[in-house]
Write a structure and sequence with these properties.
Blueprint: E1 2-8, H1 15-27, E2 32-37, H2 52-62, E3 69-71, H3 86-100, E4 106-112, H4 113-116, H5 125-131, E5 133-137, H6 154-157, E6 160-163, H7 172-180, H8 193-199
Parallel strand pairs: 1-2, 1-4, 2-3, 4-5, 5-6
Helix pairs in contact: 3-5
């Protein structure tokens, strides 16, 4: 069983997220991709534009019809309001999967190159590199050598794989700004997400 954890704010989820998950599933023969919106990002000072419940609902619409994709609440907001740390989430995921199935499994973690380059600022980076195989979504021209600032050991490098060739230029930040300005961004969203945003009056300037 080859399972990928795809965490993030997903504020809102867009076609770029879906393209990344499809490419990862195809190139790394994944059996399942878990889309897990994050309750509270440790390295972001600003709160998401939409609530956790709305982001989860939008994700469920975005992946409808994708047989390998599922949403997960494993990274839901903590009752005490503390941040969601990836090392805790991956540890919990490993534990839950070991209970659910005795079959051999491998966990992957999908992450953007820019975020991965901040790995040393994450909690317990050495353990993170042991808990999962890392699928790093790279920019055009990005190479494994560009990860040299992380000072990965040869063994750690074997757990890092670049996911290249995904040319979907969509930014959630730009989408939120466009929505605040009343622009139609439906072409950049998965079917149903735009309608949900309008029905729930998300990302409006008033």
């Amino acid at each position: 069983m080859r399972i990928a954890f795809f965490g993030g704010t997903f504020d809102p989820p867009h076609r770029g997220h879906i393209a990344i998950a499809r490419a990862a599933a195809e190139r790394f023969s994944l059996d399942k991709v878990l889309f897990a919106p994050t309750g509270k990002q440790p390295l972001k000072s600003t709160a998401p534009g939409a609530s956790y419940e709305d982001r989860l609902a939008m994700l469920q619409l975005a992946i409808a019809g994708e047989s390998l994709f599922e949403t997960s609440t494993i990274d839901a907001p903590r009752p005490d309001g503390t941040p969601n740390y990836t090392v805790d989430t991956l540890s919990r995921l490993n534990h839950e999967l070991s209970i659910e199935s005795g079959a051999e499994r491998k966990i992957f973690c999908i992450v953007g190159a820019d975020s991965f380059l901040d790995l040393r600022q994450w909690r317990q980076p050495e353990l993170l590199l042991e808990l999962a195989e890392w699928l790093v979504v790279s920019r055009p021209g990005f190479a494994l050598e560009d990860l040299s600032p992380l000072k990965l050991s040869p063994l750690q490098h074997t757990h890092v794989h670049l996911l290249r060739g995904i040319a979907v230029d969509v930014s959630a930040t730009h989408l939120r700004e466009a929505l605040r300005n009343g622009q139609n961004v439906d072409p950049d969203l998965a079917p149903g997400v735009g309608d949900y945003i309008r029905q729930h009056h998300l990302y409006t300037s008033h």
